[in-house]
Amino acid sequence: MGKRIESFREIGGHYDVALCDVWGVLHNGVSAYKEASVALEAARGEGLTVVLITNSPRIAPKVVEQLRQIGVPDSAYDRIVTSGDVTRRLIAEGPKKVFLLGPERDIAIIEGLDVVRVEAEEAESIVCTGFFDDETETPDDYTDMLTAWSARKVPLICANPDLVVERGHRMIPCAGAMAAYYDRLGGETRIAGKPHQPIYEASIAAARDVRGEFPLSRVLAIGDGMPTDVRGALDYGLDLLYISHGIHAREYVVEGHTDEAALGAFLAREQASPKWWMPRLA
């Protein structure tokens, strides 16, 4: 199950680049985990290049604004690559008549592209950034809409592969849950964010733009989400620092402490082998 570390300083010097998850590692959607930002700031001071890699459906400048509002300082990272950024390429390559499935604040994902926003009945592709109201809705609320698209063989482009995310102390469904449901209904899904290769390629390119060439053996991924952060990093061949008090904490955290036997069993069930782990990035 990897080696437990107490401080990021123990391993930061082993790497040139860190690809760090955002939601669940740097903040919980409401407030920042201050020690995580302090750890990354210190590591950058010692020469580490930090690229934030997030499944947010927003483009990078919008996420930067969000991070500042929550309390994550610009000094904690060098670059940020979002699922929204890499998903724009899929949108540009797809049919031109698109329906935006998600809140209006995510409109930037299609702005500036050679596409036309249309109503659901006219759509030739669906750009899904989430739910219209993720506080109250589930994928089942969209059954009729999704079934109609599936019958017409309309592809769904998922801008956020996460199934759920922790907002404060609540679990909120994400676009990935919608995509999974559409897949079960027989629909076609297209995804570029974690755990898929395009977002890792874009993140490595961003790191090389900052510091030049480096081998992948000198890249560390940091994350807490098993189907996204963990699976994506391991499939890409990267060392992984697993943050155990993230989204899966209910599987093995008892009264605020990680039950190491339960954590080991969880990782074994998931066939995941992080090189390192710690409760929170600090």
From TrEMBL:
<dbReference type="GO" id="GO:0016791">
    <property type="term" value="F:phosphatase activity"/>
</dbReference>
<dbReference type="GO" id="GO:0005737">
    <property type="term" value="C:cytoplasm"/>
</dbReference>
<keyword id="KW-0378">Hydrolase</keyword>
<dbReference type="InterPro" id="IPR006357">
    <property type="entry name" value="HAD-SF_hydro_IIA"/>
</dbReference>
<protein>
    <submittedName>
        <fullName>TIGR01459 family HAD-type hydrolase</fullName>
    </submittedName>
</protein>
<dbReference type="InterPro" id="IPR023214">
    <property type="entry name" value="HAD_sf"/>
</dbReference>
<dbReference type="Pfam" id="PF13344">
    <property type="entry name" value="Hydrolase_6"/>
</dbReference>
<dbReference type="InterPro" id="IPR006356">
    <property type="entry name" value="HAD-SF_hydro_IIA_hyp3"/>
</dbReference>
<dbReference type="InterPro" id="IPR036412">
    <property type="entry name" value="HAD-like_sf"/>
</dbReference>
<dbReference type="Pfam" id="PF13242">
    <property type="entry name" value="Hydrolase_like"/>
</dbReference>
